[in-house]
Amino acid sequence: MVIIVLVKYVPDMLRVRFDVDRGRVDRSSADLEINPFDLNALEAAVRIKEELGGQVFVLSMGPRRTESALKDTLARGADSAFLLEDRKFAGADTLATSYTIASAVRQLGHFDLILCGEKTVDGDTGQVGPEVAEHLDMPHIACAYELNVTRENVTATCDIGMERCTFKTSFPALITVTKDINIPRLPAFRDRARARQMAVRMMGAAALSGTADVARFGVQGSPTKVYKVVVPSDEGRKGKIFRQASDEAVDEVAERICHLVSPNNCAGDI
Ligand SMILES: Cc1cc2nc3c(=O)[nH]c(=O)nc-3n(C[C@H](O)[C@H](O)[C@H](O)COP(=O)(O)OP(=O)(O)OC[C@H]3O[C@@H](n4cnc5c(N)ncnc54)[C@H](O)[C@@H]3O)c2cc1C
């Protein structure tokens, strides 16, 4: 069983800044961490490998500094990690991102399953997984929280809003997973030491030119145009401590709630 796991490194969302003028996230302004849902996808892949045998490849598209971070995926049980890195990939929307990733998947050769997170914590579109499957013309199942994989097929139980559905497909297929599918393992010290010795394999635009149209990479291949980025102002919490006797405090709290809910029907002004 050959499984490819798609992994995106996302900025620490509590620290990252926005380039409002250019309508972009300034990814250099914060440390990168693995998208949490992708850790679940990787854990699912490694468990399948442990049960059925095979290999797990990790594929990521991102800046050069992702290279060292990708070693964490090797420590967590991936056999090889590939980084798509090239200036030509910059400024990609989800369509160009999924096209580039699908082109790299073709380049990697035979595989049975692609696993990815249901969404990222920065872009949060949930589009890349299904789009990759469409580019590769193969079935996909979204938002799986339970997987049963045999050598012949895969059954996935999915959380679709108010509904829970079970789907079955043969290989190759792409499945996006939720955080409920498993609890990702923590790599042991010896796994980290082993991963430090392993190389992350780099892939640039030239490496894909045999299987892809380079005009569909990066900003050139992105039909999405961002006209304006607005960062909502953080007004903070408006707390108040009531220090008077409890009866008076209760009256005042009730009055304040009344003014919030139904300002024209309150007993008195506050
Ligand atoms: C006009 C425009 C310009 C942009 N320019 C840039 C830019 O210059 N630099 C930049 O970093 N982003 C840029 N972005 C954002 C970029 O489009 C998204 O980061 C990317 O397409 C992934 O979308 P998402 O985060 O919504 O992923 P989702 O669709 O929510 O992700 C679902 C799953 O797909 C997989 N996945 C997603 N992205 C990747 C990836 N890169 N590598 C491997 N697996 C992945 C993961 O498994 C993930 O859990 C731009 C977006 C727009 C609209």
Task: Write structural notes for this entry.
- With 270 residues, the protein is of the alpha/beta class.
- It has 2 domains: 2-221, HUPs (Rossmann fold); 237-270, no CATH class.
- Helix content is 29%, strand content 25%.
- The chain is built from 7 helices and 13 strands.
- It has helices spanning 36-52, 66-75, 94-108, 128-135, 189-196, 205-208, 246-261, and strands at 2-6, 9-11, 17-19, 24-26, 32-34, 55-61, 80-84, 113-117, 140-149, 153-160, 163-170, 173-177, 201-203.
- Strands 11-10-9-12-8-1-6-7-13 form a 9-stranded mixed beta sheet, sandwiched between helices.
- β3 and β4 form a beta hairpin.
- α2 (66-75) crosses α5 (189-196) and α3 (94-108) packs across α4 (128-135).
- The protein is globular and about 75 Å long.
- 34% of the residues are buried.
- The structure holds flavin-adenine dinucleotide.
Helical stretch count? 7
Q: Output the structural class.
A: alpha/beta
Q: Please name the CATH architecture of the largest domain.
A: 3-Layer(aba) Sandwich
Q: Which value, in Å, is the CA radius of gyration?
A: 24 Å
CATH C-level name of the largest domain: Alpha Beta
Present as ligands are: flavin-adenine dinucleotide
Oligomerization state: single chain
Total tally of structural domains: 2
Number of strands: 13
Helix content: 25-40%
Summary, kept brief:
The protein is 29% helix and 25% strand. By secondary structure, it is α/β, with parallel strands linked by helices. A hairpin with a 4-residue loop joins strand 3 and strand 4 (24-26).
